[in-house]
Amino acid sequence: METKVSAVEKSAIRKVAFRLVPFVALMFFINFLDRTAISFAGPNGMSKDLGLTAAQFGFAAGVFFIGYVLLEIPSNLALHKYGARRWLARIMVTWGIVALLFTWVSNVEGLYVLRFLLGVAEAGFFPGAILYLSMWVPARHRSHILALFYLAQPLTIVIGAPVAALLIEAHGTFGLEGWRVMFAGVALPAIVVGVIAWFYLADSPADAKWLTPAERNWLTAELTAEHKEKQAGHAAAHSVTAAAAALKNSRVWLLSVVYFGLIYGLYALAFFLPTIIGGFEGQFGTKFNVFQKGLITAIPYLPAAIALFLWSRDATARGVRSWHVGAPALLGALSIPLALYMNSPAATVAAITVTACSIFSALPTFWSIPSRFLSGAAAAAGIALINTIGNAAGFIAPFVTGAIKDATGSYQMPMFVVGALMLVSSVVIFAIGAGARQENELAQQMRGKVIAE
């Protein structure tokens, strides 16, 4: 009997990994490319054509997250209510339409408005995708599944940067500047894939026709049992009450602080790396064409994808521990400020590669932690809150980075800010881990006393 159950478990998880995760990862790939397309457009004509300072560029990059944050929690609760298939598909088509409008932006005010609306359109996608995938596999498989999903983020730059460069080099197509061609080229796939998602995705394992009856039954039973275990010892609560409780949970807020530091580093790097590389000519006297700059931008992210995969495998094998997040965050905190003190383009990119590996190793293992103590509506609200606060860093990071660069004339001081916030993330997650260990030890002691009595 045990062998039969193990075979069903193995086949069910494999099918989720190969049938579902790649498609959701493709959606995430397009999502991250659309929100960071401005980073390629800026140093390749957009900033000059629209007359942007570094601070204005940073504000345009970051204002996306104001709209995103405002609707993050409502959007995720709507996904929980109406189902992931409809809601994720709706989000994707909507942001694709808004992203396409960047092709015709003509001034800085219009750029601000479109970036804000893009955030409104994308709100809820990422935490919704995390919640969606978490609803398909038991906790012991979650870090592996989320790692496969998260591979799309660094690969977005590995593949997207050269593709964006090629689109930019298609200057004159339809009478458009290269950066406008690029915006159109990365927006259209969102609309197409969003329509496909409506028909391709299933809301739950019970609705998946590509699972056998045995696989559907096993997944449904495992997930139901897991949900009941999380609720054990508590009275059944209305979803609104459960969501409110999650929003008051101190551990949720501490995890939000951790995520804030990681996301600050991610977006400071994502939005300004192409600009930093564009400055190599003035700093080191080296010259690169647009496509070469795209390839250099991609360099840190391929090792980051490999590090993400291997680190997540280790986390899955050992069980996620606080050091799976804290150690990479600490390494990133030390490496990013040093990057801009290197004496060559190669050394600078090497240091940035260490930072990219650190950030992407920490992120997928981080997301397996909230689902340990949250489920149902509480998970929807808690995960959305963590992502909302983290994405506030998405607004603050590019704006502060650009403003400090304008004030100091270099990117060195902004990168020290990145390092400091990632250091805070490392300290807090280690503290959370220490607290959890103390709770477990106390619980074991209490159980021992009960048995003895």
From TrEMBL:
This is MFS transporter. The lineage of its organism: Bacteria, Pseudomonadati, Pseudomonadota, Betaproteobacteria, Burkholderiales. The keyword Membrane applies. The chain crosses the membrane at residues 16-33, 53-71, 87-106, 112-133, 145-168, 180-201, 252-278, 290-311, 323-342, 348-367, 379-404, 416-436. It is a multi-pass membrane protein. Keywords: Membrane, Transmembrane, Transmembrane helix, Transport. Its main location: membrane. Residues 20-437 form the Major facilitator superfamily (MFS) profile domain. It comes from the Bacteria. It is found in: Membrane.
